[in-house]
Amino acid sequence: MAQKFVYRFGGGKAEGRADMKELLGGKGANLAEMANLGVPVPAGFTITTEMCTYYYQHGKTYPKELEAEVLDALHFVEEIMGAKFGDPNNPLLVSVRSGARSSMPGMMETVLNVGLTSKTIPGMIQKTNNPRFVYDAYRRLIMMYSDVVMEKAAGIEPEEGKGIRVQLEHLMAAMKKQKGVTEDTELTADDLKVLVEQFKEKVKEVLGKPFPDDPMEQLWGGISAVFQSWNGKRAVAYRRIEGIPDDWGTAVNVQAMVFGNMGDTSATGVAFTRNPATGENKFYGEWLVNAQGEDVVAGIRTPAPLNEATKNEQNKHMASLETAMPETYKELDAIRTRLEKHYKDMLDIEFTIQEGRLWMLQCRVGKRTGTAALNMAMDMLEEGLIDEKTAVTRLSPNQLDELLHPIVDPAAEKNVKPIAKGLPAGPGGACGQIVFSAADAVEWTKQGKTVILVREETNPEDVEGMRAAVGILTGRGGMTSHAALVARGWGKCCIVGCGALEINYKNKSMTVDGKVYKEGDVLTLNGTRGYVYEGKLAMMNASENPRFVQFMKLVDKFRRLRVRTNADTPEDAKKALEFGAEGIGLFRTEHMFYGKGSDQPLFLLRKMILSKTEEERKAALDELFPYVKKDFKATLEVMDGLPVTVRLLDPPLHEFVPQSPEKQAELAKALGISLEDVKKRGETLHETNPMMGHRGVRLGITYPEITEMQVRALLEATAELLLEGKKVLPEIMIPVVCTVKELDHQKVLVDRVYKEVCAKYKLEKIEFLYGTMIEIPRAALTAGKIAQTAEFFSYGTNDLTQMGFGFSRDDIGGFVPDYVEKKILPADPFQILDQEGIGELIRIGIERGRAVRPKLKVGICGEHGGEPSSVAFCHQVGMDYVSCSPYRVPIARLAAAQAAIKDMK
Ligand code: PEP
Ligand code: MG
Q1: pTM above 0.70?
Q2: How far apart are alpha carbons 357 and 462 in whole angstroms?
């Protein structure tokens, strides 16, 4: 059989179904479904998305069969509606609308009232006995058609304010002025009759072509314009943001027009079967008497509430549909129930009432806020409308994120433009006065002010200021830069890599796009989107929903992956436990040298780093030892028997070399050497590529005493807790390993220290695991050998991405955005795991590792461990756990459950 390009619906039946969205687009598939359900839908037909693809593949032409198929379908519509397209006495008018697989609201084009011509106008007037209505419909057709078909689809790009629609609007405004009226509805039939002639002249003058007076020409013009709009600028930009593939194409829906603007028994409206902002189970919507759909959407008139129960302050004085047209409202309400029962979800519907008769024009699964998604999922579960698995899939991980942070009120955000954009490093919103140094952030906060810390980039010395600030904004850096990692760990709002900022520390100011912002000026950050706004925008706190816990319980029923957290302090560990963490997957030892209470340990660490001899170094390490042990012990204790992976010191030592003259002087004194010597020793530690320099296990190989001190501190802390009757489960993790020999070398030390600690505490054994990070491609490839020594693998996908791509993780701000923009990469690989390349290394590593050690425990502790699509990948490749910052623990739990549910299907 020849390929079928046109699917009909109407008269209680349809050729399509709701599950044919790929072919018919969301709108077409749902119109078909409603028709099949017997819901009143004006008859029509859908031209498939395949035709859109064909159209673009064949130089914007159609196969010759299409015309006959369209004509046949048009006859079908004519028969059901009892009117004929182009007929002078009894004309049928149609709408031509787009409909992609997933909704792209407002991104593509629509033409209404197609089929009105000089020949059909008299027939329409006779039929409706309403000349005003007919001329109003005609002027709308000319406006839309000339704009959508004759200008946009023809590729004409007029100057700002010179588009045909604007010019026609000017004519209409002039007419209203001349008639001394303010509302469109106050123009009479005669006024409109004059106006349409003016419109036609203007169209010819501006576009050089007459407005077509042939119905078929109008129809095909409309169809092609919709296909064209698939590649319109707005649609392309939207697809890029939403990740919708270009080759999906749109369908075209041609449907008999019904009119909501035929007088006071006609109306139009949009509704949600439940409240999309709160999830409340109340029919919620807006309607306008004597109006066409575009009037509601365009906000030309203020719509009235659908019913009494959902009136608000702004619309409480207006008549609801429930009271104005009680019978029709009842019918609509019954359809609402029927559709919800059938679709088992909240729907967004559009309807028109033509002279008392109700018609459904659209239904689709409605968009909703995180709070609403949560409440609806739990309500529908309780109502027996959906099962547990479905409830778990009803909240996207991003929506869950919304529930965990205060956010910028989307309504407030809609009205303003961001002054700059950066990378969304820490989700949620923040609003505060800007300061340009960590010290000021701390000081101002002490004074009771709310501040946003603005830095070129942050380093460990800024941590206290970062903690004090409500939000962090940096000019440089990527998603795994210091600022991003720290902020995300705390669940703090943060935007990094905001290239538009020109920061002047000296003047305590910054310039953005020519405008100067001084210390104390107020900004609002949307860390979820990476948008920076001037001034104060309203914030929303969505987190206190008691159903959250209930929902998360449900989530945990289905997931296989365990979820741990990256935490380095007892406070973070506690927070993560509240969020449901089942262990610590990454305790970065070096974090004890940053932030609160770190002065003395940092001083001792510096002393150790600048030591010249082993003796000096050992002495410094001995001094440092009690601090490290205390630090380990506190977190191990909080975790109460859950596994805690402690990673030995990882960063290049030069990161800790003191820069300020006072600190250098202090050290010189402590080491009994000159200031000059301190500086010199610091300089010798300088590296050109520190990320690939003397860091991670390499430190332990050169200075075994550093490893020894840490292992002893950990095992002694463990032994003491055990003797106190506590439960402890430490795991020693060696970072930046590239060969098993490194692991073996360190293992000798670990075994020796282990024996010594057991003897010291008179313990027969101390339970612990010895494992490694896999964060260098060579380690992944030689995983079979590494697994002979390592009892567990933890994928450090920050470094694995860095070294797999050869992209410096701290310097990607300069080029990765371009790569994404130019579609060279689908996304920033530091945010979303590159499954094709880095994922392959992970797969190979697991396979080779488990071939040698079948029970090898495998997890991930890079930033990807909290990113939903990456978590799903970790599930697929058979990892045992993911580990992420505390605030992302619930997100990872949900993503893991959804991945498991997908497997069950
Ligand atoms: C990693 O590389 O993925 C990792 C977790 O370690 P870090 O970010 O501390 O280098
Ligand atoms: Mg790393």
Answers
A1: yes
A2: 66
- Single-letter amino acid, residue 773: M
- Find where tokens 């995180």 sit: 370
The sheet carrying 347-354 orders its strands as 304-305, 284-289, 267-272, 347-354, 357-365
Q: What is the pLDDT of residues 607-625, one digit of tens each?
A: 998 888 889 899 999 999 9
Which residues fall inside 5 Å of ion ligand 2, going by CB?
775, 796, 799
Distance, CA 398 to ligand 1 centroid (Å)? 23
CA angle at 600 for the pair 596 and 603, rounded to the nearest 5°: 115
What is the CA(593)–ligand 2 centre distance, in A?
Answer: 17
Instruction: Name the helix (H) or strand (E) containing 511.
Output: strand 509-512
Ligand 1 pocket mutation, candidates 568, 593, 648, 799, criterion most atoms within 8 A of CB: 799
What pLDDT score was predicted for residue 545? 54
Structure tokens at 94: 């149609």
**Interhelix angle 547-558/889-904, nearest 10 degrees:** 50
Q: Which residue has the tokens 């027939």?
A: 123
- Give Cβ neighbours of residue 721 (< 8 Å, ≥ 6 apart): 633, 636, 637, 728
147 DSSP 8-state letter:
I
The answer, yes or no, to whether any atom of ligand 1 lies below 6 A from the CB of 650, is: yes
Q: Is 862 in the pocket of ligand 1 (CB under 6 A)?
A: yes
Q: Which run of H or of E encompasses 173?
A: helix 164-179
Q: Which of 402, 467, 400 has the alpha carbon at shortest distance from 428?
A: 402
**Annotated active-site positions, please?**
482, 861
User: Which one, of 164, 89, 101, lies nearest residue 127 by Cα?
Assistant: 89
Residue reference for tokens 């319980």: 553
If one residue of 594, 691, 692, 775 were mutated to test the ligand 1 pocket, choosing by the most ligand atoms within 8 A of its CB, it would be: 775
Contact predicate 366/394, CB 8 Å: no
Q: What does the alpha-carbon distance between residue 220 and residue 94 come to, in Å, rounded to a whole number?
A: 12
Other CB atoms within 10 Å distance of the CB of residue 223: 22
Distance CA 271, CA 614 (A): 75
Ligand 1 pocket, 799 CB below 6 A?
A: yes
Alpha-carbon distance of 142 to 275, in angstroms, equals: 36
Measure the CA–CA gap between 75 and 70, rounded to whole angstroms: 9
Residues contacting residue 70 through CB under 8 Å, at least 6 positions apart: 6, 45, 47, 219, 223, 254
- pLDDT, one tens digit per residue, over 25-51 is 999 999 999 999 999 999 999 999 999
Q: CA-to-CA distance for 363 and 39, rounded, in angstroms?
A: 11
Nearest to 361 by CA among 266, 257, 262, 223: 257
State the residue for tokens 């709160």.
278
| Ligand 2 center from residue 774 Cα (angstroms) | 9
Residues 562-605 pLDDT 10s: 999 999 999 999 989 989 999 999 999 998 888 778 889 999 99
